[in-house]
Amino acid sequence: MINRYRDGEITSGQLYIMIVSIMIGTGVLGLSRAIAEFAQQDAWISVIINGIIISLTTAMAIYVAQKHPEMNFIQYTAKLLSKPIAYLILFTYSVYAVLSTGLIIRFLSDMVGTWFLPRTPTIIVTFIIIASTVYIVKDGLTLVGRFNEIIVLSILSFIILIFPSLSKASVLNLMPVGGSGVVNILKGVLPSYYSFAGFEIVLLFYPLVSNKNPKILKYSVFSILFVTLFYTITVASQIALFGYIEIKDILYVSINYLDVLDTPVIERIEIFFAIFWTFSVFGTISIQYIAASIGLQSIFNTKKTSFFTYLFAPLIFIIALLPRNTVEVAAYSDILGKITIFFGIIIPVLLYIMYHLRGGKMKNEKA
Amino acid sequence: MKRLKGLILFLLLSILLGCWDSTQIEDIYLINSIGIDKTEEADKINVTLIAPTIHPEAVEPKADISSVGYSLRSAQDNIQSKAARIIKYTNTKLLILSEEIARSGISEHVDTLLRDPEGRGTMKIIVTEGMATELMRLIPPVYPLLSEYILKLVDQGYKTTTIPSTNLRSFNNDLKSEGIEPVMPYLKYGNKEYELLINSTAIFKNDTMIGILDNLDSANLMILRNEIHDGFFSFIYEDNTGSEGIVSLRKIKGRSNISLELIDSQLNIFHEIKITTHVSEYTLDGAIYDEEIIKKVEAAANDKLKRDCEALIKKLQKEYVCDNIGYGKYVKVYYPDIFLAEDWNKTFSNVVIHIIPDFKIEKVGTKI
Amino acid sequence: MAELNEMQEITKKLSDNQQLFRLVLKDCCDIIYRSIKIPLANDDCDGLLISLDGLVSEEIINDYIIKPIKQHSYQTSKLMRKKPDMNYYKEIILVNNIASSSKVGDIILGILSGDTILMVEGHNTALIINTREWDSRSVEESNVEKLVRGPKDSFVEDLRSNTAMIRRKIKDPNLKIREVQVGTRSRTRVSVIYIEDIVNHKVLNETIEKLNAIKVDGIFDSGYIEEYLESNKFSMFPQMVVTERPDKVCGNLLEGRIAILVDGSPDAIIFPVSFIQFIQSPEDYYERILYGNVVRIIRMVGFLIATTFPAFYVAITTFHQEILPTNFILDIAKTRVSVPYPPVVEALLMEGTIELLREASNRLPTGIGQTIGIVGAIVIGDAAVRAGLASPVMVIVVAITAIGSYIFPHFSTSYSVRFIRLPMIIMAATFGAFGIVVMWVLIIAHMCKLNSFGNPYMTPYAPFQLNDLKDSIVRFPNLSFKKRPMSANSRNRLRK
What we know:
The complex is a heterotrimer.
Chain A: H1 12-23, H2 27-39, H3 43-66, H4 73-81, H5 83-115, H6 122-137, H7 141-151, H8 154-162, H9 182-196, H10 201-205, H11 215-247, H12 253-257, H13 270-300, H14 306-321, H15 326-366
Helix pairs in contact in A: 1-7, 1-11, 1-13, 2-3, 2-9, 2-11, 3-9, 3-11, 3-15, 4-5, 5-6, 5-13, 5-14, 5-15, 6-13, 6-14, 7-13, 8-13, 13-14
Chain B: H1 2-16, E1 28-30, E2 33-38, E3 45-52, E4 62-69, H2 72-80, E5 86-88, E6 94-98, H3 99-103, H4 107-115, E7 124-128, H5 132-137, H6 146-159, H7 168-176, E8 183-189, E9 196-205, E10 208-213, H8 215-224, E11 232-238, E12 244-263, E13 266-282, H9 291-320, H10 327-334, H11 336-341, H12 344-348, E14 352-363
Parallel strand pairs in B: 1-5, 2-6, 6-7, 7-8, 13-14
Antiparallel strand pairs in B: 2-3, 3-4, 8-9, 9-10, 11-12, 12-13
Chain C: H1 14-24, E1 31-38, E2 45-52, H2 58-80, H3 86-92, E3 98-101, H4 104-113, E4 115-120, E5 126-130, H5 159-169, E6 175-182, E7 188-195, H6 201-212, H7 222-229, E8 241-243, H8 246-254, E9 258-262, E10 268-271, H9 283-286, H10 289-318, H11 326-336, H12 343-363, H13 366-387, H14 392-404, H15 412-431, H16 433-449, E11 451-452, E12 455-456
Antiparallel strand pairs in C: 1-2, 2-4, 3-5, 4-5, 6-7, 7-9, 8-10, 9-10, 11-12
């Protein structure tokens, strides 16, 4: 059948939406808690700093990619950093993406098992999640892009759900602003990084955008700033409600945030938050999954991504079942969070520097 | 075709394997209220649960079961063996603590109820005189369910600015935050049978109850805590001619403004309270419809409130050594060194607090 | 029956031809063979008229074929001094549409379509004269797509009447109607209608190719064609709009879409379409903006209710009792005490009953059908509650759902909704709210995958087309529709 869009390609709009969708996922739930441990009442400042850093690195990544319009990730990385290193980077990225997907799925099953279905075996829940994800992902990137375009609307509900509990919040909990000291605020940047993780897909997906134009840089940075704004408001309102001391005890802050109020018709709106959050996490999982498949597909040059999709499914299933309890999940996420710094910050910066070094050389060669 | 077969198989399996989490409504005890008492044995508590019966032919409108255990959940286990249906706290709205339990520390119970996602954070807590079990056995004539009755009493008391409305979350918040201590409504038995009186506040230091503030003090405490809603503020007013009468002002809304100042290395707290009111009662002979007189009435009200509040604060500072009002939060923000120097409650007893009420009479009603 | 060679030609000998046709059309008692003697100057000539009783207009044959032949042939042949050829007869027969052919296949097709065949001794060409006339339904209001405001004519079974209705609304020479014959035995005429300078020719060419490639013995409704042309037959969502209304067809044609009309069927099919069109009705455009928009939003809400409400109810009462206020839950619990089985079974039973009622009321004549509907709904529902087979809340839920599923202007959508509803109830019964979420994720993924002739099904939401949002859930004033929607895939985007 004729298709207006070539298979495997996405529009620039879908790229922005996927950036937002992959970042807003599991991190939202416990973000305040992770940062408030260090930065106390100024956790929201840490979030802003983090967002700015990430916007810069993303801008660098897109800048480099824009200079190589016809090459995909592995090609221009190979050009800038030499072929074996490029293959190594892409391979480790795929491995990381697979691990990350498995861990996110496990987090989702845990959350479902805590709030919705305590007695249902984790295996069944995990199986259902993976089966649905495979259904979404097996038809390629275009479908994942369209799927996320619809799923990203659930973020609207998050924004709406911030407002009800604000009546019980007090600004006093956020003061004194800056009182915790610059060192603590900076210490808070690191744990918040995991919530922002995922934007490195820009490296992989930019070459697949069908209508490349210079504006993509601007709008991608806007997407990241939008997510930063959203996180800042969330963290600020949660700290304003609970105060940074009580927050340290609460695991799923966003859900408990809604527990402080009795609403007229539907008595507990946390269920709705959890429902929309599940949609959002499905979005995140689908993007992370296909990023892993695309990564390996570029290395091995297979024709269809669905081969790797099916290949990964049992692998991810096992990874999702590995950790024994919620605490181990948190430990593994920490480790992965540190790895993601490598892909998110170091690689773009490296590419940018190498581009300018080599690019300068190439200009000379041309002359 | 393969997909279709897989789908059918999955569907069949899911029906046959059963639903692990499904519970029928008629198989659940939707607990209305929980009551905790002390028992003769030192480390055991007595937990009572009330749930409405739903069988149309049942004799009693509610079922109440109690049992003994080391903690809330272990007692719940014992209760379950006496209960015909599954106990669920998903709709529990009220937690009743006996005074004995309150006086021996309740943080473990609060933690238990908050840990399981089943329970609600908006569960209201009250402390009762005597045993919780006895209270829960009452069947008030107006409402068949005791918990609803008590909840509505608390609601009314809160709306008339008499008692706080504490739920699990706010209690936990006050407990964990530095610079404020929790409070809770206190239930007393009235003179008649089935008459319950909730117009006093139990004050807590950390998680232990240390005292009870009676009716008037409780109302003033609410004003100081910036929970000003409805209700009347009455006082004796003496006009120019020397005759006395009662003036009652109906509170409409109020706002607090707390500012701190360090004067001669002594912390001073200035607490402005602006209350907008309407005149509801003016039993003197003259008219109140006069600017001068209104100003004088306002001044008299300010005076009365200032004296009462300062007496209350003195009580809190000297007798209880406990800051239930929340000044500590402000001190922590603006003068963190003073706050962190030593235990705030001790520091609190030496702070000089100035109450500056500002009554504003907006309307005088339909008569002059 | 003798093997019919379509390409065989008739000979010059009339008796041979007549024998051939009598053999091919043996045992067809409604074929009329009328031999006429054509009076010519030198001697009389034999002629044969073959027509199919019931499909031809006797008046035309008598007054405009036989009469002129009998009246003028003698004089003219005398004047012309030679035997007239077939072109002469073509001239004197006073009928608008005459073709000529020597192929037996064409002649048989003509006879069976209602044309009258004239064969003359000594000529091996036959005239195929259009004398078609038959009883057909008059143009009346559609039963299925009723409007309060708007034109009330709808298509009938006759292809020519239908195309005439479309021509009346669009008087543009660029409106092209191509005809394809589908079905080896039914030889049904299928018209492909489009506007030349706005349609997407790739889609058009592929459509014509596919139509020509259909190998089936007969088609009687556009539904057959729909199935052949669709790329995703097993999906529960229709990928073409089916309508009986000419104004809907014309609106879509002007946006650059293609319409197909099948002879014998009053349903036209339109493609390429996107999902949002199944929730739209022409009335939204004719009514005022506010009403049109509010009704559309109600339909969207109706869609959500019709798919998710029973599942939601099952999920709440089985898993998440904490959502509803305590009093409400207690009431539900009280009414459910007497019901012996879980809410799932209750829901499925009630759904099954409603389906039976629906099917039954479709078959019954109008008067009884309505009564049974009311009887069924009220009495059975009430009796079920009292017997303890269902709880009142369940009856209400099922009733609202049933009403909600008929809210769509496009009838087949109600089938889609039913097919979504059932698995969702089962998922909700097994996994609660999580099951509902997973089901919706799968449905959204499925809808995103669907292509209607190359056009993504979920336009304008995914991929996001800002301009097309003007006419999706809410519609903006007609004046602001300057461009044609992307979903129509047309070449010419500005509305001129």
